[in-house]
Amino acid sequence: MKTDLSIRKGEFMPSANGTIVTWCYLFVHHTKVERVNEKLKERFNTFIHKSIVYKQVKNRVKKEERPTISGLLFVQGDNCDIQRMLHEIDPALYLMNDCSTHRTAVIPDRVMQAFIQVSQMDENRIRFMPHALSYYSTGHPLVRVTSGVLSGFEGYIVRMSRDKCLVTSVGDITVAIGGIHKETFENIETYLRLRREEQKLGGFSADDEVLSWQKELESCFFHPENQLDVVAIAGRLHQWIAETHNWMQEKRYADIAEMACLLLEKTGACLLSIDAGLHVGGSKDLLSVCRDAEQMLSVLAADAGVSAELKQYIFSQKQSLAVRYPFLSLQV
After folding, report:
1. b/e sequence 126-135, b meaning 16+ C-beta within 10 Å
2. Which of 14, 107, 200, 245 is deepest in the core (most CB within 10 A)?
3. 131: pLDDT strictly greater than 70
């Protein structure tokens, strides 16, 4: 793969206050890409990811360079300024939105620069994936890269065609970066712990009378700031849901009810805190966990072996949760 980059290597576009400006992207009809790119380059840095393809022409093979994804154009600059210029070029052109936030998809400059650098280092390392990032969560570890060009990137380690790849997102685009062999990683448990430390979140104090599992469940939560944060929290909570199946066999009904209610409480508060940014409707991974937790409570409520007192506790807790977090759509 090769690239079309309108800035020299290592050159950035600072904003008025000296900070590095983020990137965004749009899709342009393939017949208009060149014209739109030239216009944007008058004021902004742009980048087009390109690949080399080989075509049979009569008796010889012809090498041809073309965009990897037809019409995909990355632009560095203030998204409002870019959008205004796009309307001047063509009123039908719009920057792409992030499906979680429903706002313009923004790519941090450090992420984009690493993406560009990897593209320039090896023509085969980047693949554009057909599914959302959460699709690759099942059975694959969530990690943070701690060394090399991709240091700071988060994603899933997936083996494709015997190649160890990091599946991550650039903006709202899912990509797989191959050749992940010498890099070092942190796993999901470390990821959650570090995110809590970054946000200076404490846990229960030594004086709190709580069970060990309650402390562990508490440690799963922090304030999500991006899609990977949401996926990381949901991935760990799904492990808790799986654990309760063992509790059911052990007839730990009270623990299951308390855990499910605490999970719904913490997840509801988590979603409420990010409602202005990551819309609840886009946080389907966390909502899926809530549905599983509610299903467990429904099973307990219908089980003849569960005491009437515990059933009343479940009913009152669900009523309270439904009032405070109506977006969870709990059935009371």
Report:
1. bbebeebbbe
2. 107
3. yes
Highest mean pLDDT pick, 24-38, 96-110, 189-203: 24-38
Residue closest to 330 by CA, chosen among 302, 303, 290: 290
Q: What angle do CA 38, 42, 48 make, to 5 degrees?
A: 45
In the 3-class helix/strand/coil scheme, how is the chain assigned residue by residue?
A: CEEEECCCCCCCCECCCCCECCEEEEECCCCCHHHHHHHHCCCCEEEEEEEEEEEEECCEEEEEEEECCCCEEEEECCHHHHHHHHHHHCCCCCCCECCCCCCECCECHHHHHHHHHHHHHCCCCEEECCCCHHHHCCCCCEEEECCCCCCCCEEEEEEECCEEEEEEEECCEEEEECCCCCCCEECHHHHHHHHHHHCCCCCCCCCCCCCHHHHHHHCCCCCCCCHHHHHHHHHHHHHHHHHHHHHHHCCCHHHHHHHHHHHHHHHHHHHHHCCCCCCHHHCHHHHHHHHHHHHHHHHHHHCCCCCHHHHHHHHHHHHHHHHHCHHHCCCC
Overall average pLDDT of the 14-29 stretch: 72
Query: Which one has a higher pLDDT value, 210 or 181?
Result: 181
**Angle at the Cα of 238 from the Cα atoms of 235 and 240, rounded to 5 degrees:** 120
- What digits encode the pLDDT tens for the residues 33-75? 999 999 999 999 999 998 877 777 777 877 777 888 999 999 9
Q: Which of 68, 181, 62, 54 is nearest to 115 (CA)?
A: 68
| pLDDT at position 41 | 93
pLDDT tens-digit readout, 259-314: 999 999 999 988 887 644 444 444 777 888 888 899 889 989 988 889 999 999 99
d(CA 43, CA 88): 13
